[in-house]
Design brief:
The structure holds 2 protein chains of 2 kinds. By secondary structure, chain A is of the alpha/beta class. Helix content of chain A is about 30%, strand content about 30%. Chain A has 2 domains: about 1-120 and about 285-300, no CATH class; about 145-275, Rossmann fold (3-Layer(aba) Sandwich). Chain A has helices at about 30-40, 70-75, 90-105, 130-135, 170-175, 200-210, 230-240, 255-270, and strands spanning about 1-10, 20-25, 45-50, 55-60, 65, 80-85, 105-115, 145, 160-165, 185-190, 220-225, 245-255, 275, 290-300. The radius of gyration of chain A is 19 Å and the shape is globular. In chain A, about 50% of the residues are buried. By secondary structure, chain B is an alpha/beta fold. Chain B folds into 4 domains: about 5-10 and about 45-285, no CATH class; about 290-340 and about 450-510, no CATH class; about 345-445, no CATH class; about 525-664, no CATH class. Helix content of chain B is about 50%, strand content about 10%. A 5-stranded parallel sheet of chain B has the order 2-3-4-1-5, with helices on both faces. A 4-stranded mixed sheet of chain B has the order 7-8-6-9. In chain B, helix 10 links the parallel strand 3 and strand 4. In chain B, helix 1 runs antiparallel to helix 22, helix 6 (about 105-135) runs antiparallel to helix 8 (about 165-180) and helix 18 crosses helix 20. The chains are: A alpha/beta, B alpha/beta. The interface between A and B is large, with 52 and 64 residues.
Chain lengths: ~300, ~675
């Protein structure tokens, strides 16, 4: 598998040919609206895809079907020329789509992503701020993903790798809900971050969990927040360091490009387990659009 | 040096049982209520309940074969084989996949039965190895390796194996099963084993082949039952209902986790007839939590090679030694040393510490000065600012704002107190007893230094409220503070360092709320809002209702099902404690519940950890705290600030600075 990446401050900076089909997710903010509009402009047909974590079903356009049946859906699309709009698609939708494409063999897949220009930065210290008092959404528990799941057992050694963002509670919750041994966890931070200084939020919010649970013993790695190839390589490095018989579990709870890297790795390694908590993206969470990225994935030999 | 500094810093980080592994023999302290559990003669299943950190998992793992037959255990009593514990914490991220997905419900039910047969079956085999490799005389490894399992061939021809071969077959089946669950639409369904029937046959095969295990009883301990799907819980309930020798099922869960009492048949499981319930947190609180907490602390210090501990780890691990540990002399010795390690301050010393701190002194003087000016009093500040009667002086800073008391009257009472005469600061009126802590906390609010009110071994116990994990974290952070202050030569932590550690611990546990299940974010927001309301109450100038840290919903509409669910969730995760209401002001009202904020959050909000006064909320106010908009909460806080004579100031950043920002 080969990953080609291009990025620019605006969509006009990207070089591409139009696609036969695109798959997009739910639009919740201006970023999503802009990228879905881009997909509609440059793809022959645009499909929507959402995943329901409770029923393990996907809704593809208006049809509901089990998540594992995504390969049938993709096989029915012009998959040789397909765009995944990953700003709006969630991590599991990306994983299911990439896996379905990967199983088809030699092909090229395009993934579009736009960075946020800014986000609601968490505040620190004892003084409370307005955002501390704002309501937050109900969250799902961590659960396995069909096709990439195994059972965590104390007598069956498991390494875990968490790609983390600025929401420290997601790492805390992952450890709370799974039987992962903290000493067997590796953390991957998105460094360099989307913007200089943002990495400090990720450090600040995860460091207490890491300290409390002695996570750093499993190792800390860094991969550019907007770079799925770097995330892939970091996971690969962890995977190669596993002891014989040790299984690898991935929790992609950081940036979307890291999620893409994790999804691509899981597609190529069916023995890897994936857990995810499916956070609900709040409406209007980011107003401005940052850099545009187009990731081109080449499965099999290069044409 | 007393213990290795690095070890001291890390020994407490394993204060979650999950991090210790299955064999917890070395770290386990037999809890004081252990004999109440009546585990060894149990013929009925046990249901262990309690909040996070009360020791459920630790107890279950102690009862597992890995601990009973631990290589660390120097001598194992011959009757240990009569209780062979099999611990299983279902992996919920995986168990969740076992539903829906276009697979029939009855297939998933059989699949869960199969999973249980495999997991518990493997544990039964592993227990034989644990026994054989331990100091117990019951088995030798040769006995185990010579075992054959021909009798189980009825279930699978592949079971015609010796011990190692049979274990491998079960493990292979488990891997196949995992793969099938992950890819249920693509792989062929495995042949399912029939749950308990398979396990009972396995147990009988083992017992018949190994005479030394003829009296063996296997106890399955299923942890975190509440996280299973309802159909999975019903299957477990059926196992509970029909538990009989030599295979007894037991479960552990948080409070309110036992919502489904149905079985897969028509019956339900009924307390007493079918099981015994043990609430560990209740036992700890009703029993001697301080002694138990101190013992757990000292076993950790002993593991860190601290020499001067007042306990003998061997005794703490010995069930038979519970009586010795209840003796007064032992208790006094352990508690006395714990108090020396974490000394607290008396109220008098707390008051003196205000007079020894320049900025607190200044704040107190300003408060007195402002009260005098507000009521046009001619009296000088020095009439009330008296280091000789420090506690009374601090208390007076609130009394001066009360309209019903004249300033001269208060000054006169101070004079009488100073002269040793009857006065209202002490005696039956006892202004100091009722108001001092409230006044002290209001002085520390927004102060950079943590209030030493949160220091002291007993205080740590009160703030932990039966939660061993919270207690150990307070100790751990305190000892770390002490190490940072380069005073490793002796182990005691100054009150100000403890107070700082308590504030850090409190903030860390507050942040953790977000990870408490599906409602974690909402619970976190609610506790921030509620804590802020209590903190505001503590800032009342008059301190007419000091130390509010619990609430009841007394007026307005009835709670909805969603509200009950929310409060149940808050109680389940121990962010609130539910208690039957006391001191009902209107006796005509029906019995109600009151909700106490977990005292571990008190240092963060600089409020009391003592259950003193109640805040009576209208239903609509509760709703604002639970799910109101920011503006709604802001309006509520401002309304209470006015009612409670709280003056919002922009001189210091406080919990409420955002309210002032809003006003701008």
């Amino acid at each position: 598998m080969d990953i080609q990446m291009q990025s620019g401050a605006a969509k006009t900076a990207l070089l591409f040919g139009d696609w036969h089909a695109a798959i997009v997710g739910e639009v919740v903010d201006d970023r999503g609206a802009a990228t879905v509009a881009f997909a509609k402009e440059h793809a022959g047909i645009v499909h929507t895809l959402t995943y329901d974590a409770r029923s393990f079903q996907v809704t593809f356009d208006h049809s509901q079907l089990p998540a594992e049946d995504m390969d049938c859906v993709i096989a029915g699309l012009p998959w040789q020329s397909l765009l995944l709009e990953t700003t709006t698609l969630g991590f599991v939708e990306i994983l299911l789509s990439c896996r379905a494409v990967c199983q088809l063999g030699k092909c090229r897949l395009n993934l579009l992503y736009t960075e946020p220009a800014q986000y609601n930065r968490p505040q620190h210290g004892r003084v409370l701020h307005r955002r501390d008092f704002d309501l937050s959404n109900e969250v799902e528990d961590f659960s396995g993903v069909p096709g990439s799941a195994f059972m965590l057992r104390e007598d069956c050694p498991t390494r875990a790798v968490f790609l983390v963002g600025y929401e420290g509670q997601r790492l805390e919750q992952a450890l709370e809900q799974t039987a992962i041994r903290p000493s067997k966890c590796t953390i991957i931070f998105g460094v360099p971050a989307f913007r200089p200084g943002w990495e400090m939020d990720a450090f600040a919010n995860n460091v207490s969990v890491m300290q409390e649970r002695q996570l750093a013993r499993g190792g800390v790695l860094f991969a550019g927040a907007q770079n799925p190839a770097a995330a892939y390589r970091a996971i690969d490095r962890v995977s190669r360091s596993c002891d014989p018989g040790e299984r690898l579990l991935i929790g992609a709870i950081g940036t979307k490009p890291h999620g893409i890297g994790a999804a691509l790795f899981a597609c190529e390694h069916p023995d890897v387990g994936v857990v995810y908590d499916h956070p609900k993206r709040s409406k209007g969470r980011s107003a401005e659009i940052g850099s545009w990225h187009l990731f081109q994935i080449q499965y099999g030999d290069k044409p | 040096m007393n213990g290795n500094a690095e070890t001291l810093q890390t020994v407490f980080t394993k204060n979650r049982t999950e991090e210790l592994g299955y064999d917890v023999w070395k770290n386990f302290v037999v809890p004081p209520f252990y004999d109440q559990l009546d585990l060894y003669r149990a013929r009925k299943p046990r249901i262990i309940v309690g909040g996070r950190g009360c020791g459920k998992t630790m107890l279950l793992r102690y009862l597992s074969h890995q601990s009973t037959f631990s290589p660390d255990r120097p001598a194992i009593p011959p009757d240990a084989v009569a209780h062979i514990g099999l611990y299983w914490r279902a992996d919920t991220q995986f168990a969740k996949l076992m539903t829906g997905r276009n697979v029939d419900d009855d297939v998933w039910e059989s699949a869960f039965d199969h999973l249980l047969a495999l997991v518990v079956g493997i544990q039964i085999l592993q227990s034989l190895r644990s026994i054989a490799r331990s100091q117990a005389d019951a088995l030798r490894e040769d006995d185990v390796f010579a075992l054959r399992f021909d009798r189980l061939v009825a279930y699978d021809v592949g079971f015609d194996q010796n011990f190692e071969g049979f274990l491998k077959v079960l493990e292979r089946k488990l891997h196949e099963f995992e793969l099938w669950v992950a890819n249920v639409r693509k792989l062929q369904q495995p042949t399912f084993l029939p749950g308990t029937r398979f396990l009972l046959l396995l147990v009988s095969a083992v017992k018949d082949s190994l005479p030394s295990l003829k009296d063996a009883v296997y106890y399955v301990y299923l942890d975190e039952y509440e996280n299973l799907h309802e159909y999975q819980q019903q299957i477990v309930n059926t196992y509970l209902k029909h538990s009989e020798m030599p295979l007894i099922f037991n479960i552990a869960m948080k409070r309110y986790g036992f919502s489904a009492t149905k079985t897969v048949g028509e019956e339900s499981i009924i307390n007493i007839a079918d099981y015994r319930m043990h609430d560990l947190e209740k036992y700890l609180l009703e029993g001697d939590f301080p002694l138990f907490a101190a013992e757990v602390l000292y076993i950790n210090l002993a593991i860190a090679n601290v020499k001067t501990v007042p306990i003998e780890p061997r005794i703490l691990r010995d069930v038979a030694a519970l009586g010795t540990r209840r003796e007064k002399a032992y208790r006094d010795r352990v508690l006395s040393q714990a108090r020396q390690l974490f000394p607290g301050l008396s109220h008098d010393d707390l008051a003196k510490s205000v007079f020894e701190d320049h900025s607190l002194q200044k704040k107190l003087k300003e408060r007195i000065h402002y009260a005098l000016r507000k009521r046009n009093s001619e009296l000088p500040v020095e009439r009330f600012f008296r280091p000789t009667v420090a506690q009374a002086s601090i208390t007076a800073s609130a009394l001066l704002y009360r309209r019903k008391l004249s300033h001269e009257e208060i000054a006169g009472e101070l004079d009488r107190l100073e002269r040793g005469e009857d006065n209202r600061f002490t005696g039956t009126t006892d202004w100091m007893h009722n108001n001092f802590i409230g006044c002290l906390l209001s002085l520390y609010e927004s102060h950079a230094r943590a209030c030493p009110f949160y220091a002291g071994f007993e205080t740590f116990c009160l703030m932990s409220r039966g939660n061993v994990r919270h207690f150990l974290e307070l100790c751990h952070k305190s000892i770390n503070q002490s190490i940072r202050a380069q005073r490793e030569d002796k182990l005691d932590v100054a009150p100000k360092e403890q107070a700082l550690a308590a504030r850090q611990t409190s903030a860390a546990f507050l942040g953790e709320i977000r990870s408490f299940g599906r409602l974690g974010n909402q619970l976190h927001t609610f506790i921030l809002r509620l804590g802020s309301l209590f903190a505001m109450s503590h800032r009342s100038l008059t301190q007419s209702e000091p130390e509010r840290c619990h609430f009841a919903i007394v007026r307005g509409k009835a709670l909805t099902e969603s509200d009950h669910r929310f409060l149940r969730e808050a109680t389940k995760w121990s962010v609130l404690f539910e208690e039957e209401e006391t001191k009902v002001k209107d006796p005509a009202q029906p019995a109600n519940f009151e909700y106490v904020l977990n005292p571990i959050y008190a240092p963060y909000f600089c409020i009391t950890y003592r259950k003193r006064r109640k805040l009576e909320l209208r239903y609509e106010e509760f709703l604002v705290l639970k799910e109101g908009t920011y503006d709604g909460v802001s309006a509520l806080l401002k309304r209470y600030a006015k009612n409670w004579s709280v003056e919002l100031s922009d001189t210091d950043p406080t919990l409420f600075s955002h309210l002032l920002d809003e006003a701008e």
